[in-house]
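Example record used in the benchmark description.
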Amino acid sequence: MAANKDTSLPERNKWYQDDLTEVNEPIRNLLENYSKVPSDEVVKHVNKIRELGFATNPYPCIGLYRFLNLTLLTHPLYTTILKRLQSPDATYLDLGCCFGQDLRQLVQDGIPSQRLIGLDIEESLIERGYDFFLNRGSLQSRFVVRNVFEGAKQGAAWTDMEECGMDVIHCSAFFHLFPLEEQILSAKNIAKLVKKGGFIVGRQMGSVKPGDVAAIKEGSSSYRHNVETFDAMWKRVGEETQTRWKVEGTLDMIGVNPESPVEDANSRRLLFTVTKVE
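Model output (structure tokens):
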């Protein structure tokens, strides 16, 4: 994540929503059935975690409660992902995992937690995930604190993932945080983690007018794709890594709020699947 941590910035108020009075049904089900949070305490628990999380990581995804959206669960390939991860040698990586909410949904849906890896640059988010889901003593998943842009330079924690290879990588709300050249750099490192026939799934902020937009940090920019430019990016990644990728994607209005401080009239949800052909 690339948000500025300076909580004195007046802009923080733009992405700090009032406390919730109710939460969406999928996250409620996960908290009640997986974490055993009593039904009448779910909303209070969510608001407390948001407050604690935002204190250390003041990102829009936390301030605006977007971490409550189980994005992998709604991906069209979710059933396929569950079937693939039932194989004893299958491996899953949640890249930019935040609180690890999607990873824990997989566990709730029957995937052995030791097959699942979460990766984030912020250890505090991973720690807060244990507080959120109350499973520090039972979850057997591995969490890796590393920088995607540094790749193999970071030693065994990264190169072990390259050697193992991932069947599925979930990568939501990541690429859209960065300029195009940085997206390509990170994608080249991610490409080395995927098995042949494996795939990367996710969603991010896209645009009907692809190009640079103002980013959260003052004076910085990020690049928003449509399906065609996202495909072109992966073609370039393939050329520079001697790999080949099939990109499938759609643009839609699901979850988009043009009135949001981080969106506009051109904003769309970009839902994607990127499959490693060779």
